[in-house]
Design a protein that fits this description.
Quinone Oxidoreductase, Chain A, domain 1, 2 domains, 16 strands
Protein backbone atom coordinates (compact mmCIF):
# COMPACT_ATOMS: atom_id res chain seq x y z
CA UNK A 1 0.00 0.00 0.00
CA UNK A 2 0.98 3.64 -0.37
CA UNK A 3 1.48 5.51 2.90
CA UNK A 4 2.91 8.72 4.35
CA UNK A 5 5.34 7.68 7.07
CA UNK A 6 8.48 8.62 8.99
CA UNK A 7 11.44 6.62 10.20
CA UNK A 8 12.66 9.32 12.55
CA UNK A 9 11.14 12.47 14.02
CA UNK A 10 11.96 15.84 12.54
CA UNK A 11 10.66 18.59 10.23
CA UNK A 12 7.96 17.95 7.61
CA UNK A 13 10.63 16.84 5.14
CA UNK A 14 11.16 13.59 7.09
CA UNK A 15 7.77 12.37 5.82
CA UNK A 16 8.14 9.79 3.05
CA UNK A 17 5.42 8.91 0.59
CA UNK A 18 6.05 5.34 -0.45
CA UNK A 19 5.16 1.67 -0.18
CA UNK A 20 4.62 -0.26 3.03
CA UNK A 21 3.26 -3.78 3.56
CA UNK A 22 -0.52 -3.98 3.82
CA UNK A 23 -1.58 -4.15 7.48
CA UNK A 24 -3.50 -7.18 8.75
CA UNK A 25 -6.44 -6.81 11.11
CA UNK A 26 -5.93 -8.26 14.56
CA UNK A 27 -8.72 -10.10 16.44
CA UNK A 28 -10.40 -6.88 17.64
CA UNK A 29 -9.49 -4.75 14.64
CA UNK A 30 -11.07 -3.74 11.36
CA UNK A 31 -9.07 -3.22 8.20
CA UNK A 32 -10.22 0.07 6.69
CA UNK A 33 -9.66 1.33 3.17
CA UNK A 34 -8.96 4.98 3.90
CA UNK A 35 -10.81 7.43 1.67
CA UNK A 36 -9.97 10.64 3.55
CA UNK A 37 -7.89 11.76 6.51
CA UNK A 38 -7.29 15.15 8.10
CA UNK A 39 -4.30 17.02 9.54
CA UNK A 40 -4.30 18.22 13.15
CA UNK A 41 -1.70 20.19 15.12
CA UNK A 42 -1.02 17.14 17.31
CA UNK A 43 0.05 15.25 14.17
CA UNK A 44 2.82 17.80 13.57
CA UNK A 45 3.94 17.68 17.21
CA UNK A 46 4.25 13.88 17.14
CA UNK A 47 6.08 13.95 13.80
CA UNK A 48 8.47 16.62 15.08
CA UNK A 49 9.13 14.79 18.33
CA UNK A 50 8.00 17.74 20.45
CA UNK A 51 5.30 15.53 21.97
CA UNK A 52 7.04 12.32 22.91
CA UNK A 53 5.14 9.19 21.93
CA UNK A 54 6.16 5.57 21.49
CA UNK A 55 6.45 5.24 17.71
CA UNK A 56 6.62 2.04 15.68
CA UNK A 57 9.15 2.25 12.84
CA UNK A 58 8.17 3.00 10.16
CA UNK A 59 5.43 5.19 11.64
CA UNK A 60 2.40 6.21 9.58
CA UNK A 61 1.39 9.76 10.54
CA UNK A 62 -2.08 11.06 11.33
CA UNK A 63 -5.06 10.66 13.70
CA UNK A 64 -8.26 11.07 11.70
CA UNK A 65 -9.82 8.98 8.95
CA UNK A 66 -12.96 8.00 7.12
CA UNK A 67 -13.35 5.07 4.78
CA UNK A 68 -14.77 1.61 4.26
CA UNK A 69 -14.27 -1.63 6.20
CA UNK A 70 -12.74 -4.32 3.99
CA UNK A 71 -12.11 -7.03 6.61
CA UNK A 72 -12.63 -7.63 10.32
CA UNK A 73 -10.88 -9.67 12.98
CA UNK A 74 -12.34 -12.76 14.57
CA UNK A 75 -13.54 -10.95 17.72
CA UNK A 76 -15.09 -7.89 16.06
CA UNK A 77 -18.84 -7.71 16.64
CA UNK A 78 -19.98 -4.18 15.68
CA UNK A 79 -18.49 -3.84 12.23
CA UNK A 80 -18.67 -5.77 8.98
CA UNK A 81 -17.06 -5.49 5.53
CA UNK A 82 -18.69 -2.83 3.40
CA UNK A 83 -19.57 -0.51 6.29
CA UNK A 84 -18.48 3.11 6.02
CA UNK A 85 -16.73 4.30 9.17
CA UNK A 86 -14.96 7.32 10.61
CA UNK A 87 -12.77 7.86 13.62
CA UNK A 88 -9.83 9.50 15.32
CA UNK A 89 -7.26 8.76 18.03
CA UNK A 90 -4.86 6.85 15.78
CA UNK A 91 -1.18 7.77 15.43
CA UNK A 92 -0.98 8.28 19.20
CA UNK A 93 0.17 6.29 22.24
CA UNK A 94 1.96 3.74 20.05
CA UNK A 95 -0.84 3.18 17.53
CA UNK A 96 -0.14 3.43 13.81
CA UNK A 97 -1.63 6.43 12.02
CA UNK A 98 -4.10 6.87 9.21
CA UNK A 99 -2.31 8.50 6.26
CA UNK A 100 -2.26 5.35 4.15
CA UNK A 101 -4.42 3.43 1.73
CA UNK A 102 -5.21 0.87 4.45
CA UNK A 103 -5.32 1.05 8.25
CA UNK A 104 -5.89 -1.67 10.86
CA UNK A 105 -7.83 -0.07 13.73
CA UNK A 106 -9.34 -1.36 16.95
CA UNK A 107 -13.12 -1.33 16.50
CA UNK A 108 -13.62 0.75 19.66
CA UNK A 109 -12.16 3.79 17.83
CA UNK A 110 -14.44 3.46 14.77
CA UNK A 111 -17.97 4.77 14.29
CA UNK A 112 -20.52 4.27 11.47
CA UNK A 113 -20.50 7.13 8.96
CA UNK A 114 -24.02 8.58 8.63
CA UNK A 115 -25.91 8.44 5.36
CA UNK A 116 -25.32 11.50 3.23
CA UNK A 117 -22.09 12.51 5.02
CA UNK A 118 -19.02 12.44 2.79
CA UNK A 119 -15.76 10.84 3.82
CA UNK A 120 -14.11 14.27 3.54
CA UNK A 121 -16.55 15.82 5.98
CA UNK A 122 -16.40 12.90 8.41
CA UNK A 123 -12.60 12.91 8.48
CA UNK A 124 -12.43 16.69 8.88
CA UNK A 125 -14.85 16.58 11.80
CA UNK A 126 -13.26 13.73 13.73
CA UNK A 127 -10.71 15.04 16.23
CA UNK A 128 -11.94 18.63 16.44
CA UNK A 129 -15.59 17.71 17.04
CA UNK A 130 -14.79 15.01 19.60
CA UNK A 131 -12.58 17.54 21.40
CA UNK A 132 -15.35 20.15 21.41
CA UNK A 133 -17.93 17.64 22.67
CA UNK A 134 -15.70 16.29 25.44
CA UNK A 135 -14.95 19.81 26.65
CA UNK A 136 -18.45 21.27 26.48
CA UNK A 137 -20.44 18.25 27.64
CA UNK A 138 -18.07 16.15 29.73
CA UNK A 139 -15.85 18.81 31.29
CA UNK A 140 -17.78 22.10 31.35
CA UNK A 141 -21.30 20.66 31.55
CA UNK A 142 -22.81 23.42 29.42
CA UNK A 143 -26.50 23.99 30.08
CA UNK A 144 -29.19 25.62 27.90
CA UNK A 145 -29.28 29.38 28.37
CA UNK A 146 -25.68 29.71 29.49
CA UNK A 147 -23.22 31.98 27.68
CA UNK A 148 -20.10 30.41 26.15
CA UNK A 149 -17.16 32.58 25.11
CA UNK A 150 -14.91 31.01 22.46
CA UNK A 151 -11.52 32.70 22.22
CA UNK A 152 -10.74 31.80 18.62
CA UNK A 153 -13.92 30.69 16.89
CA UNK A 154 -12.68 30.34 13.32
CA UNK A 155 -10.26 27.42 13.67
CA UNK A 156 -10.98 23.71 13.55
CA UNK A 157 -11.76 23.19 17.24
CA UNK A 158 -13.15 26.70 17.71
CA UNK A 159 -15.68 26.35 14.90
CA UNK A 160 -16.83 23.02 16.35
CA UNK A 161 -17.15 24.55 19.83
CA UNK A 162 -19.29 27.40 18.48
CA UNK A 163 -21.64 25.02 16.68
CA UNK A 164 -21.93 22.41 19.42
CA UNK A 165 -22.48 25.06 22.10
CA UNK A 166 -25.38 26.39 20.00
CA UNK A 167 -26.78 22.89 19.55
CA UNK A 168 -26.67 22.50 23.36
CA UNK A 169 -28.76 25.65 23.73
CA UNK A 170 -26.06 28.09 24.79
CA UNK A 171 -25.57 31.68 23.71
CA UNK A 172 -22.18 32.06 22.03
CA UNK A 173 -19.78 34.98 21.95
CA UNK A 174 -16.63 34.33 19.91
CA UNK A 175 -13.53 36.12 18.67
CA UNK A 176 -11.86 36.08 15.28
CA UNK A 177 -9.29 38.27 13.51
CA UNK A 178 -10.16 39.30 9.98
CA UNK A 179 -13.54 40.43 8.69
CA UNK A 180 -13.78 37.25 6.61
CA UNK A 181 -13.13 35.05 9.62
CA UNK A 182 -15.63 36.98 11.70
CA UNK A 183 -18.27 36.50 9.01
CA UNK A 184 -17.50 32.79 8.90
CA UNK A 185 -17.91 32.46 12.67
CA UNK A 186 -21.27 34.24 12.48
CA UNK A 187 -22.18 31.67 9.83
CA UNK A 188 -21.44 28.93 12.36
CA UNK A 189 -24.16 30.43 14.56
CA UNK A 190 -22.28 32.67 17.00
CA UNK A 191 -24.56 35.32 18.48
CA UNK A 192 -21.78 37.91 18.71
CA UNK A 193 -18.36 37.91 17.05
CA UNK A 194 -15.64 40.33 18.17
CA UNK A 195 -12.13 41.19 17.01
CA UNK A 196 -9.76 39.54 19.46
CA UNK A 197 -7.36 42.48 19.04
CA UNK A 198 -9.89 45.08 20.20
CA UNK A 199 -8.46 47.01 23.18
CA UNK A 200 -11.94 47.16 24.74
CA UNK A 201 -12.73 43.47 24.23
CA UNK A 202 -13.55 42.88 27.90
CA UNK A 203 -15.92 45.84 27.94
CA UNK A 204 -17.65 44.63 24.77
CA UNK A 205 -18.18 41.15 26.18
CA UNK A 206 -19.50 42.43 29.50
CA UNK A 207 -21.81 44.83 27.68
CA UNK A 208 -23.35 41.78 25.98
CA UNK A 209 -23.20 39.52 29.06
CA UNK A 210 -23.54 41.77 32.09
CA UNK A 211 -23.12 38.97 34.63
CA UNK A 212 -20.16 37.45 32.79
CA UNK A 213 -19.80 34.30 30.71
CA UNK A 214 -20.42 30.85 32.12
CA UNK A 215 -17.80 29.05 30.03
CA UNK A 216 -14.58 30.52 28.62
CA UNK A 217 -13.13 28.17 25.98
CA UNK A 218 -9.49 28.91 25.22
CA UNK A 219 -8.12 27.70 21.88
CA UNK A 220 -4.93 29.77 21.97
CA UNK A 221 -1.52 28.49 23.02
CA UNK A 222 -0.80 31.44 25.37
CA UNK A 223 -3.83 32.04 27.63
CA UNK A 224 -4.43 35.44 29.21
CA UNK A 225 -5.94 34.35 32.51
CA UNK A 226 -6.39 37.89 33.83
CA UNK A 227 -8.73 38.60 30.94
CA UNK A 228 -10.43 35.21 31.11
CA UNK A 229 -11.20 35.45 34.82
CA UNK A 230 -12.44 39.02 34.45
CA UNK A 231 -15.02 37.75 31.96
CA UNK A 232 -16.28 34.84 34.05
CA UNK A 233 -19.63 34.81 35.80
CA UNK A 234 -19.99 33.46 39.32
CA UNK A 235 -19.25 29.74 39.14
CA UNK A 236 -17.80 30.11 35.65
CA UNK A 237 -15.59 27.51 34.00
CA UNK A 238 -12.45 27.85 31.88
CA UNK A 239 -11.67 25.04 29.42
CA UNK A 240 -8.10 24.57 28.18
CA UNK A 241 -7.10 22.29 25.30
CA UNK A 242 -3.87 23.95 24.10
CA UNK A 243 -0.74 25.64 25.40
CA UNK A 244 1.44 22.68 26.34
CA UNK A 245 4.48 24.89 27.01
CA UNK A 246 2.64 27.96 28.32
CA UNK A 247 3.47 29.23 31.82
CA UNK A 248 1.22 32.30 32.26
CA UNK A 249 0.55 34.13 35.51
CA UNK A 250 -2.78 33.33 37.17
CA UNK A 251 -5.10 35.66 39.18
CA UNK A 252 -5.81 33.30 42.07
CA UNK A 253 -7.81 35.76 44.18
CA UNK A 254 -10.47 36.84 41.65
CA UNK A 255 -10.75 33.23 40.47
CA UNK A 256 -11.52 31.57 43.77
CA UNK A 257 -13.69 34.39 45.08
CA UNK A 258 -16.01 33.81 42.10
CA UNK A 259 -16.06 30.07 42.82
CA UNK A 260 -14.77 29.23 39.34
CA UNK A 261 -13.36 26.03 37.85
CA UNK A 262 -10.43 25.47 35.50
CA UNK A 263 -10.34 22.25 33.50
CA UNK A 264 -7.76 21.06 31.00
CA UNK A 265 -7.78 17.91 28.92
CA UNK A 266 -6.13 16.13 26.01
CA UNK A 267 -8.73 14.56 23.73
CA UNK A 268 -6.65 11.46 22.99
CA UNK A 269 -6.51 10.55 26.70
CA UNK A 270 -10.29 10.29 26.98
CA UNK A 271 -11.63 6.75 27.30
CA UNK A 272 -13.08 4.84 24.37
CA UNK A 273 -16.48 5.01 26.06
CA UNK A 274 -16.33 8.81 26.38
CA UNK A 275 -15.27 9.23 22.78
CA UNK A 276 -17.92 6.83 21.49
CA UNK A 277 -20.63 8.78 23.33
CA UNK A 278 -19.35 11.99 21.75
CA UNK A 279 -19.18 10.34 18.33
CA UNK A 280 -22.82 9.23 18.53
CA UNK A 281 -23.95 12.83 18.95
CA UNK A 282 -21.52 14.09 16.31
CA UNK A 283 -22.73 11.56 13.75
CA UNK A 284 -26.33 12.59 14.34
CA UNK A 285 -25.48 16.30 14.02
CA UNK A 286 -23.44 15.73 10.85
CA UNK A 287 -26.30 13.78 9.29
CA UNK A 288 -28.83 16.50 10.13
CA UNK A 289 -26.55 19.26 8.85
CA UNK A 290 -26.40 21.00 12.23
CA UNK A 291 -22.63 20.48 12.42
CA UNK A 292 -20.18 21.18 9.64
CA UNK A 293 -16.42 21.55 9.81
CA UNK A 294 -14.82 23.90 7.27
CA UNK A 295 -12.30 22.39 4.86
CA UNK A 296 -9.59 24.74 3.60
CA UNK A 297 -8.03 22.43 1.01
CA UNK A 298 -7.84 18.82 -0.17
CA UNK A 299 -4.43 17.34 -1.06
CA UNK A 300 -3.30 13.94 -2.32
CA UNK A 301 -1.43 11.59 0.01
CA UNK A 302 1.80 12.32 -1.88
CA UNK A 303 1.68 15.91 -0.55
CA UNK A 304 1.42 15.03 3.14
CA UNK A 305 4.74 16.76 3.93
CA UNK A 306 3.35 19.96 2.41
CA UNK A 307 0.16 19.58 4.44
CA UNK A 308 2.21 19.28 7.64
CA UNK A 309 4.29 22.34 6.74
CA UNK A 310 1.19 24.47 6.16
CA UNK A 311 -0.48 23.26 9.37
CA UNK A 312 2.66 23.81 11.40
CA UNK A 313 3.11 27.34 10.08
CA UNK A 314 -0.50 28.21 10.88
CA UNK A 315 -0.33 26.73 14.39
CA UNK A 316 3.11 27.84 15.54
CA UNK A 317 3.65 31.04 13.60
CA UNK A 318 0.08 32.26 13.23
CA UNK A 319 0.33 32.73 9.48
CA UNK A 320 -3.44 32.78 9.04
CA UNK A 321 -2.96 30.61 5.96
CA UNK A 322 -5.76 28.19 6.89
CA UNK A 323 -9.50 28.81 6.91
CA UNK A 324 -10.41 25.26 7.87
CA UNK A 325 -9.04 21.73 7.90
CA UNK A 326 -6.55 20.19 5.51
CA UNK A 327 -7.97 16.93 4.18
CA UNK A 328 -5.69 14.37 2.55
CA UNK A 329 -6.97 11.66 0.23
CA UNK A 330 -4.97 8.48 -0.47
Amino acid sequence: MKAAFIEQTGPPEVITHGDLPDPVAGPRQALVRVRACAVNPIDTYVRAGTVAMPLPVPFVVGCDLAGEVVAVGTEVDRLRPGMRVWGSNQGLLGRQGTFAELAAIDERWLYPTPNGVSDRDAAAAALVSITAHLGLVGRAGVRPGETVFVNGGSGGVGSAVVQIAKILGARVIATAGTANKQARVRGFGADLVLDYRAPDLVEQVLAAAADGVHVFWETQREPDFDRAVSLLAEGGRIVLMAGRDARPSFPVGPFYVKGCTLVGFAMFKASAQEQAAAAADISRWLESGRLRVPIDRVLPLSRTAEAHAVQEAATLRGTGALAGKIVVEP
